[in-house]
Amino acid sequence: MPSPFPGMNPYLERESVWSTFRAMFITQTHFHIQAQLPNRYVGQLGNRTYTTEPPLERRSLDVPDVEKCYPLLIRDLETDQVVTVVELLSPVNKYPGAHRERYLSIRSEILRSRTHFVEIDILRGGPRMPPDDLPTCDYCALASRIEERPRAGVWPWRLRDPMPLVPIPLKAGDADAQLNLKVVIDHVYDVGGYEDYIYSGPPEPRLAPDDMTWAAQFLPAAKS
After folding, report:
1. Are 41 and 170 in contact (CB under 8 A)?
2. 3-state helix, strand, coil in the chain (%, to 5)
């Protein structure tokens, strides 16, 4: 069953849901894009680990929180060159602190390289990434093409809006792949069984009252 929301499902942003959802989302994005790539390209998942302080109630256990973030790398098989990096942001990337600074440093390095860069932010919480002149939005996607830098394509949208198709640029002469965010989210929602448990509490961050009223119409029966 697809997600009932016309755009992003705010219940998937809950802390207890996000980590597993993110891993499934980037894996399905890999499959979704790989199916569109010419034979000379292959998609691969990278690996980046963040260690954070556990919540106060868990610190007595002395167990750090470890979050693995998997950027999607699109590689040219003929040259072994990484052509495009696709990033899906997590809270550790967005909120101020050492991990955000680390991510911004990696991001800046990519933007100075000969690699296309695509960044997907489907989290309402936390400050936006640059550029700083974005219109007011809940979610945002960015595609930075080598040949157009420092300009980049930006797709901001609100909770009630449908999600955009995000271009995934490849080498000159090859047509873009297209990331259909709604198709990917619907598949992950279905195979992850999210309908059965994510509606047991409110969205995180909390929605404004009028948005909560709007969202209620999409909740499965007996979960509103």
Report:
1. yes
2. 35, 25, 40
Using alpha carbons, select from 108, 138, 117, 187 the residue that is nearest to residue 10: 138
Q: Are 121 and 94 in contact (CB under 8 A)?
A: yes
Q: What is the pLDDT of residues 137-147, one digit of tens each?
A: 999 999 999 99
For the chain, the structural domain boundaries read: 10-216
The whole-number average pLDDT for the span 36-56 is: 73
Query: Of 140, 148, 146, which Cα lies nearest the Cα of 123?
Result: 140
Contact between 128 and 107 under an 8 Å Cβ cutoff? The reply is no
With beta carbons less than 8 A apart as the criterion, state whether 143 and 49 touch: no
Q: Which two tokens stand for residue 73?
A: 């790398």
Cα–Cα distance, 158 to 143 (Å, whole number):
18
